[in-house]
Description:
Elements (H helix, E strand, L loop, with lengths): L2 E4 L5 H10 L3 E5 L10 H8 L7 E6 L4 H11 L3 E4 L6 H10 L4 E7 L5 H5 L7 E7 L19 H8 L3 E4 L8 H8 L3 E4 L4 E3 L2 E2 L1 H18 L1
Parallel strand pairs: 1-2, 1-8, 2-3, 3-4, 4-5, 5-6, 6-7, 7-8
Antiparallel strand pairs: 9-10
Helix pairs in contact: 1-8, 3-4, 7-8
Amino acid sequence: MTWVKVCGMTNLEDALSAVEAGADAVGFVFYEKSSRCVSTETARQIVQELPKEIEKVGVFVNQAENTLCELAERTGLTAIQMHGDHEDPRVADMVKERRPELKVLAAISMVRENPDGWAMRWRPDVVHAFLIDSGNGSKLGGTGKTFDWRTSEPILKNIKARGNVVAAGGLTPDNVSTALGILKPWGVDVVSGVEARPGKKDPEKVRAFVRAVREADRKAD
């Protein structure tokens, strides 16, 4: 089945709604310029109330190895998402050496030049998944905008050769089945498409999103 991550969690109610809807992972944004940014303590309190099997992903922008490892330990994260414009793949290498149990997701902007070339800079044995997004230098994620799925297929094929691919960027309950049919990713990541407002989820939209993904999975079998 397609791996489903609901990102941008700011409160326990939303995180539990995602879990109950059938999500495989929830995400917490630790980027101070984001309207969905959470404190270390808030994330820790939410994480400790979630089932063990749920992936807890921290989203970071251009942070050093020490910050990533220490914050992951303090909050109970099981994965980190490196989402900056100037991420250093060597930081991911050091994180895995220090905390081999932490999964690493590397964000790849599909609207920037040479996204597959950027993916080639990361070690495939270190990166758990490449998250393909529509973010740019001014707004790194949660844009509510899609990239061109059709024209991206050749680039995506090259990235898939390096590892798992998680599709993100403008996904909603209404378009996620189409995205799955075209992109055929390992997973999907949704933020604004299931929100009532930035930082607050709409439980019905969350349920509808997960339901649409599972229905698409069944049709693909």
